[in-house]
Amino acid sequence: MIMNRIRLNKHKGIRILYHCLFWLGILVLLPIFVSKGSGDYFRQVGLFAITLPFDMIVVYVSFYILIPNFLIQKKIFAFILLFIITGLLFILLQRTFIYYVLYPEEANSQFFARDLPGFILITFIIYGIALTVKLLKLWFKKNQELNEMNRNKLHIELKLKEAELSLLKAQLHPHFLFNTLNNLYGLTLEKSDQAPAIVLRISDMLNYMLHESNQTTVPMAKEIKYLRDYLDLEKLRFGEELKLDFKEEGNYADFEIAPLILIPFVENAFKHGARVQTEGAEISVQIKADSELFILRVENSVELDPRQKDNEKSGGLGLANVKKRLELLYKGRYILDIDNKTDTFVIRLEIRKHGA
Fold first, then answer.
1. For the chain, what is the radius of gyration of the CA atoms?
2. What ranges do the domains of the chain cover?
3. pLDDT tens-digit readout, 128-187
4. Would you report the helix, strand and coil content of the chain in percent, each value rounded to 5?
5. Residue 296 buriedness (CB in 10 A; 0-12 / 13-18 / 19+)
6. Which residues are CB-neighbours of 270 under 8 A, at least 6 positions away?
7. Beta partners for 244?
8. CATH class for domain 169-352?
9. d(Cα 72, Cα 80) in Å, to the nearest integer?
């Protein structure tokens, strides 16, 4: 509290010092131009010293009344009009003070003398200089405020994106786990010898989910291994009933990707393909990559139950979440095509390493 008060007093002191230096500069420099080497410089300094309080009143009325209530409110015409009226009024008061108080013997001959237009011009030059300094200060302050607002806005947007990504990943984890444990449950009921292998595969996959998925990006090789583990798990479950084709082309050694962003497409193929078809289920997973572009293509045969809704055919929660993640993470750097055919469902995802 005391430190804040000290800082406030220091700030006020600096402002007062700047204002004093400004008016001192007016008092010292303008008489040079008015006297024009005529030798009456000090007489002009004296006259400026006399009229300066009137000028200061006009300037501070403009600063603290006209600018906040008219100029900042975009009432520009009213501001200009009131500024001119205020200036002329105080010029009249200046002349009155000089010639009816200080030099009354010259009042009748000098009040409206030939120097009046020049007097008005010089006075409005003072007002103009002060006003320009004030407006420049307001402009710089406004720019600083806008820059600060933009920084805060970007910070808030970043936090919101991070929160949304965390929420989407939190939704994805139980979604995957539910489906995978259902597979294991079915095999344990059958007392299948494949159950131990599936437990080991699930362990590897959960390890990836728990330890890698909190990273912003992971090496593409780890994400692809995760897909292989998932496909191996499903092959163990379906055996000969499933025709699975998995192909990899190219080199993705230097490619990084957001963790768990590919699995929903493959998982969707099983959910709406192999798990609902009575026989002849076909799933194709193709990966192509080079140093700049990664392509995933997933195709599955479809045997659609008439009772299924359209949104179920298109993937439900899993694909809805991954679409949001793609938009948040790869906006402008990805293309997602989804083709709903009568007997097949195809997705094609392209992700560029850098923006186009």
1. 39
2. 2-113, 169-352
3. 888 888 889 888 988 888 888 888 887 777 676 666 656 556 555 565 567 667 767 776
4. 70, 15, 20
5. buried
6. 234, 283, 300
7. 283
8. alpha beta
9. 12
